[in-house]
Design brief:
4 helices; single chain; mainly alpha; two-stranded antiparallel ribbon
């Protein structure tokens, strides 16, 4: 039964912003671990893709830093279970690398398209100032031009090609 005097369904925008920052920071932290584990495995198994993975990891490190720096001004704190994000990201990175080069790109596509969708939804909720210096259109990785089979590859909400993203949306 719904209590009519409760504030259920009515959220304080400041609390929502703190949650957004916490979730985004944790996601970037996990992505750093995914790429780190993939790089570790790829150095031995697929050395040709290591530079691309390192570039993507550098993007995630920068994103993580931006979210972490935005937290204090909004009274947000990092997620309490960062160790799980670290472990989960590392395990996912190792398993996808063991699955092969294509599995690395599939994982990257899935993660990046989800991140883009979340950022677009979050920016629709709030003004871009909530997430300073970090909007989907300002991401350095979106300006990268991936070329697979001679065509630039991109991702959109449903996973099909449409807007630039930081990974190939199909595998060679």
């Amino acid at each position: 039964m719904i209590n009519p005097s409760s504030n259920a369904g009515m959220r304080d925008p400041d609390v929502t912003v703190r949650r957004i920052l916490k979730v985004n920071h944790a996601g970037e932290f996990g992505a750093i671990r995914i790429y780190g584990a993939q790089i570790l495995m790829a150095r031995r198994l697929f050395p040709g893709i290591v530079p691309a993975l390192e570039e993507m990891r550098e993007d995630e490190i920068e994103h993580c830093r931006l979210f972490r720096e935005a937290m204090p001004a909004r009274r947000a704190r990092p997620c309490r279970v960062m160790a799980f994000w670290s472990l989960g990201g590392s395990v996912l990175g190792i398993l996808t690398a063991l699955g092969g080069r294509n599995m690395i790109w599939i994982c990257t596509q899935a993660v990046e398209s989800t991140v883009h969708r979340h950022l677009e939804d979050q920016l629709a909720f709030s003004s871009p100032s909530v997430i300073p210096n970090f909007t989907p259109s300002s991401r350095r990785s979106r300006n990268r031009s991936w070329r697979i089979s001679g065509k630039p590859k991109t991702a959109r909400r449903d996973g099909a090609c449409a807007t630039p993203c930081s990974c190939p949306s199909s595998v060679p």
